[in-house]
Amino acid sequence: CPVRRAITQLAEIIEHPRGATIARVMGAEDIDALRFVAEYAKSGRSKCKGCGDAIAQDVLRIGKIVPNPFADGKEMTVWYHRDCMFDNLRRGRAGKKMIYAEDDVEGFADLNTHDRKALREHVASEVALKAEMEAADADATYLENTVGDNAKFWQIAVHNDATITKYGQIGEDGFSVTKEHRDDVAAQKFKEQKIAEKLKHGYIRADKAASAAAAAAGAGIKTEAKPGSKRPIKQEKDNPSPGAGATKRHKASQAAASDDHDALRFCAEYAKSNRSHCRQCKELIAKDTLRLGKIIINPFTDSGAEMTVWYHRDCLFDNLRRGRAGKKRITKEEDVENFKDLKAADRRALHEHIEAETELKEELEAADATDATHLEHPEGKWWQICVSGHSTITKYGQRGEEGFTLVKDFDDEAGAEAYADKQLKSKLKKGYVEK
What's the order of all strands across the beta sheet hosting 141-145? Predict the structure, then answer.
C-alpha cells in the first residue's frame, strides 16, 4: 500500500536527553548530509540513529552533519555507530552524499591508529561493493506500474550474496537499497520473492532502455497489460519538468526535518489487517484492534493529497504531548472522525482518555503560567520547566517563537521534582541564565 510505504519513510524528531533536538531517520527519505565527522563519544548519553542503542563513552562514533531544522543557516550532527552509519548509507535517495574516501570524514586524522585502519578498510570495502552492485545493475530485472496517477518503476539485481533494489517515479533517480544475504542462494530467493510480489501488485516487465529514452524525450510510455489482468493499458502522462523531481525531494526533505506533521484531522477505526505499524512505538497494530489516525498532507506528492499515519491509542496521545506548541490536538470526541462507529467500550475508554489528557494539559498550563522556571541563552534560545503533581511540562525554542512542548509523567511528585532539578542544572551548566 503506497500510504503504508510512505509512513515508513517519514522521519520523526525526538528530544535528546540533554535537550538538543535530533532527527531520527526512519526510511529512505533521510536528510542529506552536508559533511561527515568522526570522534570519540564524550559521554554515554548519545544514541545511534541507526540501531537506537546508546553509544558508550570513548567509543568511536560517526556523525552526519545536516541542516538544523530549527535554526536557519545552522547545522546539527546525527550520530551513528560506525557499522550503522554505513548501513544507513546503503539505502536512500540514489544521489545522496556518501563516504567514498577517508578525506570525506572530518576528524579522521585525529583517530587512533587502530580505528583509522579499520575505518579505512570499511570505506574501501563499501566502495568496492557499491561498484560491483552498480556493474550488476546492467542485468537488473526491471518492472513498471503505470496504472493510476503515478508511473513507478522498480528493479532488482543480484551479485553474489548481495542484492541492490531501486525504485521511484519514472523519470527520476529514485531510491536504492543494498542488502547482503546469507549466501548467493538466499540472495536469488529474495530476488524471486520480491519480483513475484511486485507482479502481484500490478507491476509488469518493461524495457528499461526504452523507458529511459522516452522519459528523456518527454514522450509517453505505453506498456503491455499483465497477462490475465483486467487493468487497462496505461499511457504515461507527460514527463515532469526537470525541476519536478527536485521539488518532490525538497518536500520530502522538509517532511523529514519537521518535528511533527501537523494533523489536518484525526480518525479512529479497527485495523483491517496485521500489516500496519504504529508510528510511535513501531509495533504492529493487530487486525481488528482499535487504531487512531492522524490525517496529514502527503509530503511525497505535489498534489496536496492526504495520507493517514496510524497509532495505538495511547501512543497517539503520547505523541500529542510533545511537539510544536500550537499543533492540532484532540480536545474532545468530536475531533475524532468515526468516533460514533466504535464499540461502546472503546468509545467510553477513548472519551475518558481525552478528558484525562485535557484536564492534565489545563492543570499544567495553569501551573506553567505562574510557577515555571524560565531560562534564556545568549544565543537567542529559551527554555522553561514546571512541575505539577507527578508531571512536568517543558517548553523550549528560539526567542520570539512559540517553540515546542514536552509533557512527561512520573511515578510520583518526587520523581517529577528530581527530573526538573536535573534538567535545570544541566541548562545552567550550558550557559542558560534565569530570567
Answer: 91-93, 175-180, 162-169, 152-159, 141-145, 204-205
pLDDT at 101: 86
Q: Which string of b and e fits 387-401 if b means at least 16 CB within 10 Å?
A: bbeebbbbbbbeeee
Q: How confident is the model at residue 10 (pLDDT cuts 50, 70, 90)?
A: very low
Amino acid at 310: W
In the block, cell 507527460 appears at 238
Cell of 331: 480536545
- Report the Cα 297 to chain-centroid distance in Å: 15
Mean pLDDT, the chain, rounded, equals 78
For residues 209 and 138, the answer to whether their CB atoms sit within 8 Å is no
- Strand partners for 383: 375, 396
Kindly tell me the burial class for residue 257, based on how many C-beta atoms sit within 10 Å of its own C-beta (0-12, 13-18, 19 or more).
Answer: middle
Residue 234 near residue 152 (C-beta atoms within 8 A): no
Q: What is the Cα–Cα distance from 287 to 275, expressed in whole angstroms? A: 8
pLDDT of the residue at 261: 62
pTM, entire model: 0.41
| pLDDT for residue 320 | 85
Q: What average pLDDT does the segment 153-159 reach?
A: 89
Which range, of 10-19, 179-188, 270-279, averages the lowest pLDDT? 10-19
